[in-house]
Structures are given as structure tokens and as C-alpha cells.
Amino acid sequence: MEIIDKKYYWWNKWTGFALLILLVVATPLFTILFKLFTSPGGSWSHIANNLLFGYFQNTLLILLGVAFSTFVLGVTTAWLVSSYEFPGRKYFEWLLILPLGFPGYIMAYTYVGLLDYTGPIQTFLRNSFGIQIKGSLIDIMNLPGAIFILSITLFPYVFLIARSSFLQQSKTMQEASSLLGANRAKTFFKVALPMARPAIVAGIALASMEVLNDYGTVKYFGVNTFTTGIFRAWFSMGDATTAIYLAAILMVFVFALLYLESIQRGNRQYSSVNGLNKPQARKEVSTKSKFLYTGICTMLFLISFFIPFLQLLQWVFMTYEKVVNQEFFLLIFRSFGLAALVGVLVVFFSIILLYALRLSPFKWVKSITKIATLGYAIPGAVIAVGVMIPLLSFDKWIYDTILSSRVAGLFLSGTLFALTFAYIVRFMAVGYNPVESGFQKIGIHVNEASRLLGIRSSKTLWKIDLPLIKSSLFSGILLVFVDVLKELPLTLILRPFNYQTLATKAFDMATNEMIAESANAALIIILTGIIPIIFLNRMIKKREI
Amino acid sequence: MPILSLQHINKKYGQAKDFAVNDISFNVTEGEILALVGESGSGKTTLLRLIAGLEHPDQGSISLSGQVIVEGKKTVPAHARKVGMVFQDYALFPHLTILENVMFGIQKSKGNRAQIAKETLQLVGLNEDFNKYPHQLSGGQQQRVALARAIAPNPRILLMDEPFSNLDAMLKDQVREEIRQIIKKTGITAIFVTHDTKDALSTADRVAILHKGFLQQIDIPKVLYENPINPYVANFFGKRNEILATPSEDGFYTSFGFIADVEAKNYKAAVKLLFRPEHGEVVQRKGQQLSGKIVKVSYFGSHQLVKISDDEGFRVTIRTNPGRVFDESERAFFYLWKYDIEEAF
């Protein structure tokens, strides 16, 4: 009789690896949540009495303002490009996504420069018409200004999701509506909009997460929010526990938002996934309407991308000789290297998590792997704090026990390790989702077929699964790469002393009155950011066919 | 000795209330083709996946070639079971050529892998360029590749999940016969899952009928058809007619007339006479036969079904050859040459 080793059916090494990854990735999040139940730091009473209300008020106002204006801008343009035929429609479909490549903080100081006394608008008015304005043309360095900047960079989230939802709505549904006597406007308000609601709210939720994550814009404009509060407690007051406490409150905000989003969605699946449903035909409209629609889209594109982009280009031409030197190339090289490393690591961990899930006979594995992707909803500053605390205590433990505290310094905290770790926690979801959909697309049968042919699970992963999801792996790495490159608040907190990335360099220069010089780094971030946007658009278009 | 033996297998999925597979035991002998038949949700595919090692049972044991491969919480993993499987969607590896697909499972120690793969592809009758990729083949050709890939490593048992469901009706009869011949030629033991009774009856040596996770009956097709163990199995192969009858010394009295039968004296109370449409015959002449009014004639090309009603409007269906001409509401005479007797109450 043949002897083959028998094993416990529920065990495979992938489950073990996955649990390990989960434990590590979830540590910062649980650290913060845990700290909520301990007492806050010494400056907490000062902050609670004098600043907390302001943080609340400003954060809430910006959230509401951005939610409202991204809704109006995103849904209007999405409806226009998905249901009417007008000149340039085909181009606006992707032009209106480009602002996503503009990090909020870069948009913020570009606009300040644009409207400034020495900026192109005032110079033009002065030189051509002799119009003199004292100070800035419009003062945007305030709360409404922050709402404006964040809205024009974040509305594409709503635009993208609403557009794909409108495209998925079946033609027959809208035809039925018009046969029942409803005109285009009524069809929009009574059929299309309610059906797209879950998607639109999800888009607004995404934009809101970005608002809570933002540090650069509000800091530059001098608006105090929770994020700036965390920075102030951490850097100015040196009070880590208060920073944690603020971070924990901010995290409660986020979970509330996630919860609201999930209950509004419920179990509803309005958009039919039936492949037979062709998207609705676009309607031809009168010449007057064509002008209007093209005009609306053009205006929005000019304001949200083209004009600030031109301004950046102009600054680059003015300053590149001074800025672009060997050191600058080194900076690019370092930023790209770090971003690529994080991209590869995130996708690598995602593969292990998802492969464990793929092979596991248990449903609970699915729910716990989701924990790994929670970081994307958590503001960067919160994650930074959450990473810092365990690493600091680890360092302390090392010095106390092994080095007997003779040398002062940092072992893990304040190193590239901490930064990389935090990036992975924050952007796990960005790489995880493409890998997950890749696995879903190829199905489980090819994997099972290979194992039944006598090939072990690890070799099957290498020979069958991975070659088949190559393009998903690539887009996962690319998406993480771009997000890391743009990341600011987390990097500012965790970067090693004197370590610069393109993002921190641009932000430092801008805050030090070197706006024009900062444009060089900014331009590189934006140009790299545009590549995956075009990818993303292709993916959505494919679903349309 | 059986090559595969299942003992008291139970399987429940997650939080589900009912067992997907319920205390199932059976043996499969070497070289036989067994069909697992049932509606969707009957547990037939689960059973196949349990044998393959893609699922683990909650209770029970499985042995293959005299080796226990599942017992309690322990299992021989799928890759070590030497089980071949043809998936419903074929699951060919799209990034590998046909030849590479078939070579994939052949071990290096077996000799020239490419040679074995080519021979297997010829055996399944695939006359194509072996360097093509799966997507360049038709559905039927892909299925042959999947079959070749599964049998090339010389598995101890071959499993097939709905092997005929993706073929159109025209191809089906031909493919059924071919696959049966290929399997018989290699002498491999095979189990396949189907929801189509025609597949099962025409291709398998033995058929197992499953219903809601329970094994109803497992036997050769003829026995299942002629001597079903319970009404579910009987009805699975098509509707049966039921006539109420009162027994007497020399026959049964029914609402369609009298049937002479010496068996009748063994029954005291009312009985049901059960028969399939093809177990009756419509005849020309009057005589000692049953009769009723024709209410509907349905033409099916190869045969026609005649619905005959008694005076109270109770109906039976009799199958006739397609050439006969009937007038509706004409009086028809028929007799039964085979029926089962069951006590009515």
C-alpha cells in the first residue's frame, strides 16, 4: 500500500503567512483604537478647551462643502457626457478625470500663485488695462478657498463612479421611462439619479476620505482641522498621546462615514450587471444646448486642470535651470525607488493574502483579510501615529534590554523602515483590489485543475495563477506607486531626518515662499499620476462595451 | 475489491441548515463508469469535489485504491491523490498551448512527456495543431483537450463535472458514445456528474440518483428504470401514470375497464397501478381491453403521446408510434403490458 502523508485539511502554509501579514498590518490601527480608551496627554485639556471645537467645526464644514460641490460638479458632468452628444464629449470623458493627478496641496499653492499680485492674471490686468488691485485678486487662503481647491481636485471621484453607473444602467430602463411620457430631465431625476445613488454616495465617501486625509491644503491655507491638530500636537507640543487621541477621534469620524455609506447602500444592487443591457443611446441636442454643455465641461476642465497646469509649466520654465541638478535627479530616483518598492511589497502581500483566501475552505478568512485593506480609509497622519507608537516602544525595549540605554538614537522609528511600513498599511487596498479582481476573473477551476494534476499549491501559484493575472499585478504596482509618490502627511511625520521625497520637497519649497521652484517636483508627480488615470479610464470603457 | 469507497460521508456548507451531502456510502469497482444524477442542489457536484479533495467532508471516510485518503480531520491533499478531473468549463490553462496543457500533469519520471501527451491527444481524437492555444479551438475540441489532460498522467480515477452540458443537442449523442469508448479503451474508472438522465442511461454502467443530498438508488440503468426503489427515482426518468383499481379474484376493476390478472387475488384493499406511457399500447379492435375518450394527441416526431380520459375526466398518457392517426374525442382502446402494483392507502 502506498504511503502518502495525510494532513489536517484546514491547514496550509498560506493561511499562516496571511495571518502574520494581517497581524502586522492591523497593528497600527488597533494601537490607535486601543489608545482611545486610555487617558490623553498633558496638553489635551488645552486643546480640548481652546482648539477642539474649531477642529470639529472646520473639519465638518470642509467635509460638507466638498461633499456638496463634488456632488454637483461630478454628477452634472457625468450625466452630460453619458447621455448627450456634443462637441468634445469623447475627450471630456477622460479630460475631466485628470484633476485626480493633481495633489490638493499642489493645486492650493498653484492657485495662490495664479491669483497673487505677481501672478499672471493681475499682471495681465495691470499691463493691459492699468487695473491695480491691492494684494491678492481673490483671497482664497481661507476655509471657502480650501473647499474650492479640494472640490476641483476631488470631483473626478464622483464623476468617474457616477459615469460608470449611468453607463451601466440599461437602455431599456430609460426607454421605458420615456415611453411612459417622462422627458429627459424627469428621467434623470426619477430614474437615473435614484438608481445611481449608491454609486454616487460611494464616490462622495471616497472624496470625503481624501478630505480627512488632507494636510497640505489646509495647512497652507491656515485652516485648523484634525489633521493639522495632530501635526501641531506631535511636532509643536511634542505631545504624542494627545496626537494619538486626536487621531483616534478622527478615526471614529472615518468609521462613522464608512458606516453611513454602507447602510445607505444596504443590499441594493440597482445597476443591472446583465451583459445584455446595452448602454443608453446618447441624445442629439440643439445647437444652443451643445454650446452650453461644451462650455460647462470646458470651464471645469480649464479651472480644475488646464490653467493650473499651464501655471506650473511656466514656473518650471522660469526655474528649471536653478532647480534641476544632480541633487534633483537623485531626489526623483529616490522617490521612484521607494514608491516602486512599496508597490511591489503591497502586491506581494496581497498575493499571499488572496491566495490563502483562495485555498481556504473557511468563509471567515475572507472577512479578516478585509481588515488588511482598511488602511486606505484612515488618514495618513493617523496611520503615521499608529505606526510610530509600536515602533517607538520596540526601540525603547531594544535600548533598555540589549543596549542598556548607553546610545541614544533610533532603530526602527524614524527610519525608512517605518515609512515603508506605513505606506504599506495605508495603500494595501490600492494594490489588493486589482489583484483580487484578477483572481476572480480567472476563476478557481484553473487552480484546482493544476492541483489535481499533481502540482503543489505553491508551484501552481507560480505556474498558473500568477502568469494569468500578470496585468492585474502590474496595475496594482502602478496604482500604489503613484499614490506613494503623491503622499504628503504620512511622509512628513515619518520620514527620516532630512529625507526628502518629491512630495515633501514640493511642499517644503512652497511653504518657504519658493512656489515657482516647487513646480519642478510637482510637475513630475502630476505627470506620473496621469498615467494610471488613463489606464483606469480604459478599464471603465471596456466594461461599457 | 472496490477501487473507490465512500463511507458515511456528510458535508454541510458554512451556515447552511441542510447537509449538502447526507450520509452517503457507495463503492465503485475498477473499470466501471458511474453517473451521479440529480437536480441542481442534489449534492452531486459536492460529492465529486469531495472525492477530488477540493472539499473536505464533515464526517466519513474515503479510500482510493485501498488507501484511506480522507478520515476525520485528516486528508490527502488534492495534488497527491492522483485523481483526474474534467471541469464543466474545461479550465484549460489559457497561457499554455494544447500540448503544454496535456504535458502539465505528466511527471518527468514517466519518460518522454511530449510523446505521452501527443499519444493521449491522438487517443481522444484531436486532429489539430498541438501548438495552438485553447481559445483557438471550438468548444468540443477544448473538451477533448481537457479529457486528454486529465487522463494523460494515468490517474487512479477520472472525474467529470457535467461533461455534456456545454454541447448542443446535435453533437451530444455522438460525443457521449465517443467519450464512453475512449474511457473504456483506457480501462480507467470514471465518475461523471449530470442532470440529464439521457446522459446517465446511455453512457454509464451504473447510475446513482441523488436527491437533496441523499443517495436514492444506485444500480444499472435497466434496474433503475424498471424497478425504481421509490416514487422519486421512478419519476426522475419521466412521468408515470397512476390508475386506482379494486382487486378481485381474477383481475382489477378500474375506471377504464377490467384488467385480467391472477396477481389481483393477493390484494385485499384498493391499489394503484403504475405504468409508463410506453408500457401501454393503443389498439384498433374492441375486446377485453381498457377504453376511454381521446382528449389530446401531442406529436413529437419520433413518437406521439395520446391522452385518454375516463368518464370522470381522469387521464392517462399512452405512447404510440408516430404514424398512427387519431381523432380527438374518438374512443380509444388500450392495454397495459407492464405495470407496478402498489397499495393505494
From TrEMBL, chain A:
The chain crosses the membrane at residues 16-38, 58-82, 94-112, 146-166, 187-209, 242-260, 291-316, 336-359, 371-394, 406-425, 473-494, 514-536. CDD domains: TM_PBP2. InterPro entries: MetI-like (IPR000515), MetI-like_sf (IPR035906). The keyword NADP does not apply. Pfam families: BPD_transp_1 (PF00528). It is a multi-pass membrane protein. Belongs to the binding-protein-dependent transport system permease family. This is Iron ABC transporter permease. It comes from Belliella alkalica.
From TrEMBL, chain B:
It comes from the Bacteria. InterPro entries: AAA+_ATPase (IPR003593), ABC_SmlMolc_Importer (IPR050093), ABC_transporter-like_ATP-bd (IPR003439), ABC_transporter-like_CS (IPR017871), ABC_transpr_FbpC (IPR015853), Mo/tungstate-bd_C_term_dom (IPR008995), P-loop_NTPase (IPR027417), Transp-assoc_OB_typ2 (IPR013611). Residues 4-237 form the ABC transporter domain. One of its GO terms (molecular function) is ATP binding. Gene3D superfamilies: P-loop containing nucleotide triphosphate hydrolases (3.40.50.300). Pfam families: ABC_tran, TOBE_2. PROSITE patterns: ABC_TRANSPORTER_1, ABC_TRANSPORTER_2. The keyword Transport applies. This is ABC transporter ATP-binding protein. It comes from Belliella alkalica.
